[in-house]
Design goal:
The chain folds into 2 domains: 165 residues, Glycogen Phosphorylase B (Rossmann fold), CATH 3.40.50; 86 residues, Rossmann fold, CATH 3.40.50.2000. It is built from 10 helices and 10 strands. The chain has a 4-stranded parallel beta sheet with strand order 3-4-5-6, covered by helices on one side. Strands 9-8-7-10 form a 4-stranded parallel beta sheet, with helices on one face. Helix 8 links the parallel strand 7 and strand 8. The longest helix is centred in the N-terminal third of the chain and has 15 residues. It is globular. The mean pLDDT is 88.
Length: 270
């Protein structure tokens, strides 16, 4: 983890709510170097009574890192451990298999292999070419349950035989934008705009939204489209806006570590 993005925003709301329901919860974050970008996340959780363990200075495949995570997990005697993203899946699966066989492990799938998705989208025929997929299949052997945040990811895992249907289900994000963090505020000026938030890769469908904006321009040229996120597909999308004559209506905002205020003031999100 290295900052606040979609999943971190969700955790900032979810973890304190669990505490209110009488469930003790702790957070563990790991990153190769301490950059300071995690400070707002840690401080906001601490203000609501959630303790955060922090580990820095190790590469993802470090045995010392796995040992440190194992010691924290063992000392905490947690009823459930949830892993987020592929590195955490690997760490926790290894710890469960080698040391803590009775640990209940849930893995949450927020996305998929970016390189694979950029090239093949949700096509399952090329999955065996992806190291990501083989790691997910191996860690899935000891994971008790998988949770996806979208139907697209669910279908990819089931149809691609990465996970059995009996071990995976969909739980969609539920964000409350009435109580959003104030860090990372980005001024929206006076624009009226809709917003699409996500990495700029082909399979996410930004191109279709931009093409639809040609119709929106005919109806209401003052309504803008804010595209928040970065990625290798951006030059192609920029060219499409020029071809369609909507470059004045479409704004590429780039990567925003805390886009919550942009979401809050949007007319709607896509």
């Amino acid at each position: 983890m290295n900052g606040i993005s979609g999943s971190e925003l969700y955790l900032l709301q979810l973890l304190p709510e669990l505490k209110k329901k009488g469930i003790e919860v702790e957070m563990l974050i790991a990153f190769k170097e301490e950059s300071g970008r995690n400070i707002p996340f840690v401080e906001q959780l601490a203000a609501q009574g959630v303790y955060t363990h922090q580990i820095y200075g190790h590469k993802p495949h470090s045995w010392k890192l796995i040992q440190k995570i194992k010691n924290i997990t063992k000392a905490g005697k947690f009823d459930i451990v949830q892993s987020n993203l592929i590195h955490a899946d690997f760490w926790m699966a290894a710890i469960k298999f080698l040391f803590l066989r009775n640990m209940k492990l849930i893995s949450v799938k927020h996305g998929f292999d970016e390189a694979y998705s950029a090239r093949y989208g949700f096509n399952t025929k090329k999955l065996n070419r992806s190291l990501f997929v083989w790691v997910q299949r191996l860690t899935g052997i000891v994971t008790n349950r998988n949770v996806t945040i979208s139907k697209g990811i669910y279908d990819l895992y089931v149809e691609g035989k990465i996970s059995k249907p009996s071990k995976i289900e969909i739980v969609y994000y539920g964000l409350n934008l009435d109580h959003i963090p104030k860090t990372g505020y980005t001024s929206t000026g006076t624009d009226r705009y809709a917003i699409i938030l996500g990495r700029l890769v082909k399979y996410k469908g930004h191109e279709f939204v931009i093409r639809a904006w040609k119709k929106v321009k005919e109806y209401d040229p003052s309504l803008k489209l804010y595209i928040v996120g970065g990625g290798a597909y951006q030059p192609t999308l920029v060219n499409i806006t020029k071809e369609l004559g909507v470059e004045e209506q479409v704004t590429f905002c780039g990567y925003q570590p805390n886009p919550h205020q942009l979401l809050h003031f949007a007319e709607f999100s896509i």
